[in-house]
Design brief:
single chain, alpha/beta, Hypothetical Protein Ychn, Chain: A, five-stranded parallel sheet, 6 helices, 5 strands, globular
Length: about 160
């Protein structure tokens, strides 16, 4: 009897810059630890694997209490604040030598992370397979659950 490899199954449901990092970092760390990793991208999480959007993900400052620079909600609603918050986060990530989203996606694909785009969400939002980066499998909840049933770790991000 052989031992099955450890496995992590993630769901990415948000398509902002700050929410793209957790599933990609966890998945790439898992493969570096000789684990299997899979990410199910649903709803706005599809933006992370959309080749027209993944390089321009933004950070929403409005109603984001975790912003490191305290900001009243009214200021977050002003034009240009999303761009400023995004620029600040990219600057912080760059100074800390954090890998970019495009590079993390490349690492994930090269390392064998199973990337699953949610078919239902694609249908609802009008996303075509050709809008997604190469290497994405299209599937529904059953595809994810079939993968996740053997996971040691499951997370909704």
């Amino acid at each position: 009897m052989t031992d099955k490899p450890k496995r992590i199954a993630l769901i990415a449901s948000k398509g902002t810059l700050d929410m793209a990092y957790p599933p990609l970092i966890l998945a790439t760390a898992a493969i570096a630890m000789d684990m299997e990793a899979g990410i199910f991208f649903t709803f706005y999480g599809l933006d992370i694997i959309n080749k027209h959007k993944y390089n321009s993900l933004k950070v929403p400052p409005l109603a984001n209490p975790a912003m490191p620079v305290p900001m009243p909600n009214i200021l977050g609603a002003l034009p240009g604040m999303t761009a400023m918050a995004t620029m600040m986060m990219k600057s912080w990530m760059n100074k800390a030598n954090v890998t970019t989203i495009p590079k993390l996606l490349d690492m994930a694909r090269e390392g064998g992370v199973k990337l699953i785009g949610c078919q239902m969400t694609m249908d609802v939002m009008g996303v075509k397979k050709e809008d997604l980066i190469d290497g994405v499998e299209i599937g529904g909840a059953a595809t994810y659950l079939d993968y996740a049933v053997d996971a040691n770790i499951t997370l909704f991000v």
